[in-house]
Amino acid sequence: MSKIATVLLRGLAVIVPAGAGVLSILFSGTFAQAPQTKEKSQPPVPVRILTLAPVEVTPRVTGYGMVAPARDWRAVARVEGEVIETSPLLANGQLAPKGTVLLRIDDTDLKLALAQIDAQAAALVVKDETLMASLSLSRSDLALSQAELDRQKRLQGQGVATQAQLDQAGRVTLSAQSKVTEIENQLALNKAEREVLAAQRAIAARNLDFATIAAPYDLRIDTVSAELGQVVTRGATLVAAEGTEAAEVTAQFPIGRIGPVVRGLGPDAAVTGLRAVVRLSAPGHEVSWHAMVDRVGETIDPRTQSAGIVVRVADPLDLAQPGVRPELRRGMFVVVELSAPPRKALAVPAAAIQGGQALVVTADDRLEQRAVRPAYMIDGVAIIADGLKPGDRLVVTDPSIALPGMAVKPVEDKALKAEIAAAAKGN
C-alpha cells in the first residue's frame, strides 16, 4: 500500500468519528427523550387536636389557710377568793355544754357584805319611822307656836301684850321650825344613804354572781390556770376555751385570680356571694366541708399580694365522723376553694397556649397560628376570652416541625377532651 493511501485512511479514522459526534449533537434534540423525574412529597404529620365547643365551666380559685375557732373565751377572775369547787369537765380538751358550772370562788365575804348592807338598810327604816313620829310632833308644836305668835301680835296691836312677850313667842316659833327642818333634813339624808346602800348591794350581788364561772356557750377547754384550793386575785385568767359552734379559716388568695371568679356572679356581686368548700387531705382520701364566705380581711399581704378571705364552717363537731371525717381543729392547714355558679365557655389545655399564641388546623388540614387571650386559668385549663371560637380545631401536641401552612393529619383526642371538660367543671 502506498503512502498516500495510508494517509487517507488515517484521516478518515479521525474525521468520521468526529463527524458522527457532531451529527449526534445536532440531532440529539430530535431523537433523544427527556429523563423521567420522580416527584417526592412528605406525608402529612399526625397531630392531636380538640374540636372546640362550649363546655360547662365553674369559675373557681384556690387558697390556703389555718383553722381557728370562731370564738375564743377567757374566764377572768372579777372577785378575789379561794377556789372551792371545780367541774369534772374542767380539763384540757374536755367539752363543756353551755351553762356548765366550771368553778366557784368562795363567796362568804360577799354574802357577809350583803348581810351587812341589808342590816344597815333595815336600821335606816327604823330611823325613818322614828323620825317620822318626831316630825309629826314637831309639826304640831310648830303649829301651836305659830298660833301663839299670831295671838301675841294681835294683843300687841291692841296695846295689851308687851314687846317682850311677842319676842318670846317668836323665839319659840323659830325653835319649833328649826326642829321640823332638822328632822326633814335627816329624813333626806337617810333617803340618800338608802340609795348608796342599794348601789352597794347591787355591786355586792353582782360580785356574788362573778364568784360562779359558767360556760357562756358550748366550749372546748384549752387551758386551766386555777385549781381547787387556789386563792385567785382579781384580773387573773382562770380558764381559756374556744367555742365549738363554728370554725373559721382565713385563707390567702391572689388578688388577680379572685376578680374573674367574682365577676362570674354578675356586675354587682361581692366575694361573700361565692360558694366555699374547705378541704383537708387525709390518708387515703380527701375530706371536705361546705362553708360560707363570712368576710374579707382588711389588709393585703405586701409580699405575696394576696387577700385574706374568712370562711366559716358551722357545727364542725357535729359533722365529725370517727375514722372518716375529723373535727376541724385549731392549727389545721387546709385548702379553701371559692367558686361561682357554672356557665358555658371555651376551655382548652393551658399548655396549648404558648406566649399568647396557639396552633389551629385549617379547613384544608394545614397549620395556622392564632393570637389567643385567656380570661383566666383553672387547674391547668385556660378559659378563652378571645382568639378562638367554637368549631376551631386546636392543636394540643406540637408536631416535630411546626410551620404555618404545613400539611397535617388531625386526630381528635377524645380522652383529653373529656378530661378538660371535667376539669373545667370542677370534677
Give the tally of β-strands: 24
Any idea what the radius of gyration is? 53 Å
The number of domains is: 4
Q: Identify the overall geometry.
A: elongated
The CATH topology assignment of the largest domain is Elongation Factor Tu (Ef-tu), domain 3
Topology:
Layout: H1 3-26, H2 28-31, E1 45-51, E2 55-57, E3 60-69, E4 72-76, E5 81-86, E6 95-96, E7 101-105, H3 108-158, H4 163-210, E8 212-214, E9 219-224, E10 231-232, E11 237-243, E12 246-254, H5 255-263, E13 275-282, E14 285-301, E15 306-314, H6 316-319, E16 333-339, E17 343-345, E18 347-349, E19 357-361, E20 367-371, E21 373-378, E22 381-386, E23 393-395, E24 408-412, H7 414-425
Parallel strand pairs: 1-24
Antiparallel strand pairs: 1-23, 2-17, 3-12, 3-16, 4-11, 5-7, 5-10, 6-9, 7-8, 9-11, 12-15, 13-14, 13-16, 14-15, 18-22, 19-20, 19-23, 21-22
Helix pairs in contact: 3-4
Task: Explain what you see.
This protein is α+β, with helices and mostly antiparallel strands and about 425 residues long. It has 4 domains: about 45-60 and about 345-425, conserved putative lor/sdh protein from methanococcus maripaludis s2 fold (Beta Barrel), CATH 2.40.420.20; about 60-70 and about 245-340, Efflux pump adaptor protein, beta barrel domain (Elongation Factor Tu (Ef-tu), domain 3); about 70-105 and about 210-240, OB fold (Dihydrolipoamide Acetyltransferase, E2P) (Beta Barrel), CATH 2.40.50; about 110-190, Orthogonal Bundle (Helix Hairpins), CATH 1.10.287. Helices cover about 35% and strands about 35% of the residues. It has helices at about 5-25, 30, 110-160, 165-210, 255-265, 315-320, 415-425; strands at about 45-50, 55, 60-70, 70-75, 80-85, 95, 100-105, 210-215, 220-225, 230, 235-245, 245-255, 275-280, 285-300, 305-315, 335-340, 345, 345-350, 355-360, 365-370, 375-380, 380-385, 395, 410. The chain has a 6-stranded antiparallel barrel. Strands 20-19-23-1-24 form a 5-stranded mixed sheet, with helices on one face. It has a 4-stranded antiparallel sheet with strand order 4-11-9-6, with no helix packed on it. Helix 3 (about 110-160) runs antiparallel to helix 4.
